């Protein structure tokens, strides 16, 4: 049988890894796919000498690769919204299958891209876009297809997790760890995407659509990053038996779908609380299977290439399959997507960690607890730290029981307006991840 010809767009960290893995494991891959898979063309501005480019026709014009009639599958590893969107749409228009690691593209333009692909009967595969090497999309779309997914929670940004881990374990400085993550090729081209939660929000948007069969709605995802997390909060959380992780959480409730990315306290006894460094993990709760946990490298050259190449093999295997009978892009048939609303953040329900600076005098705690009580907020645990030498304010740290976010906002507004409270209240959401 004729080899399958791949056109690669981008030879950076992931593109280079993809070329190397496809070359190194060529025989094994051909045995799995039933045909030889060969990168015949690649477009890149620069080529890293460590990348195996033998047999690849190189150029610097990605559109030339997309428009080359010899190429069967386009692998888009340029990243970003543009020109990735035009390239992918052009490839589809040309009747080519597409594999991409571009979560930003899928989260923002996936609805349009899948519709175009559906019309042309081609596949768009994007496993590498979420949680690097972990086959979470395949697990959700196929392995858990019998279940109603109730919720999922994931550590889905390797850079952010690497930063939080190094801060906790080694007391390292935020900027210093970020620079290391960039040097290791983990961080996005714009690292604010990692530290402000945008990358995780892209990935969560995709996971939620596949879990619940709803269109991609990146603009409705609540997004908060790790840039305001202090060592103090990390330490207090530990004293209370919790770890702070940057989590993407999506949950189906009677009223709608929660879709949120933010720093979160998790009980330290949970496996997912012990996922450190650049590793990712996604915990999925299905009605039939119960909880399942998926763990692995969430970023990096060959771990991400592992998912890209698996998608290429998948596409190669299904190229002859009736387009109407392929696994749908978003797991549910395109005409069966539901319009379940995404809940505004004010309506989500969760527990909270609160830290505030209070005047060190009698009655202060009573004023704070009165406000919490008025909002129906129950305190689960509390620590009070004496003022540091030369200071007049004491730190109060509280864990609360679950409450709707709007009531917590109201309580925080009330507490911050008290004369005895200095500055803002720090609020970090807390998830027990047990139901
Ligand atoms: N910047 C991303 C991360 C790369 O750190 O997880 C993988 O998507």
Number of strands: 17
Can you identify the CATH class of the largest domain?
Alpha Beta
The dominant shape is elongated
Question: Structural class, please?
Answer: alpha/beta
Examine the secondary-structure arrangement and name the CATH architecture of the largest domain. Answer: 3-Layer(aba) Sandwich
Question: Remind me, CATH topology of the largest domain?
Answer: Rossmann fold
> How many domains?
3
Heteromolecules bound: L-homoserine
Residues in helices, as a percent range: 25-40%
- Corresponding CATH superfamily of the largest domain: NAD(P)-binding Rossmann-like Domain
Largest sheet: 11 strands, mixed
Share in β-strands: 25-35%
Q: What key phrases describe this protein's structure?
A:
alpha/beta, 6-stranded parallel sheet, Alpha-Beta Plaits, 14 helices, 435 residues, binds L-homoserine, 11-stranded mixed sheet, Dihydrodipicolinate Reductase, domain 2, 3 domains, Rossmann fold
SSE order and pairing:
Layout: E1 4-9, H1 13-24, H2 26-33, E2 37-43, E3 57-59, H3 62-66, E4 73-76, H4 84-93, E5 97-100, H5 103-120, E6 124-125, H6 136-143, E7 149-155, H7 158-170, H8 174-183, H9 192-195, H10 198-212, E8 222-223, H11 231-239, E9 242-252, E10 257-267, E11 279-286, E12 290-297, H12 301-318, E13 349-359, H13 364-374, E14 379-385, E15 393-400, E16 403-404, H14 405-416, E17 421-430
Parallel strand pairs: 1-2, 1-4, 2-3, 4-5, 5-6, 8-10, 10-17
Antiparallel strand pairs: 7-9, 7-11, 9-10, 11-12, 13-15, 13-16, 13-17, 14-15
L-homoserine binds next to helix 7.
